[in-house]
Amino acid sequence: MNDLKKNKLKIQDCSIIDLNKYIENSEKKYKNIKFSHSINRIKNHEKIKVLRRFIARLKTELIKKLKNEKKK
Q: How many domains does the chain divide into?
């Protein structure tokens, strides 16, 4: 997530391998934030929603790319 924001990369320009890496890393971060929030309420709980939506965008783009590859 940080790489995409820092470098202002577009999700559409990422390869399937990169998308898988971003999804994996983002899901790990999401689980850690959710766990931290359940034990000790974090101040910025908006991060949870933003990260969840970001993961959904990544997965959506991955599915689009996989469908396009099957057509080829």
A: 1
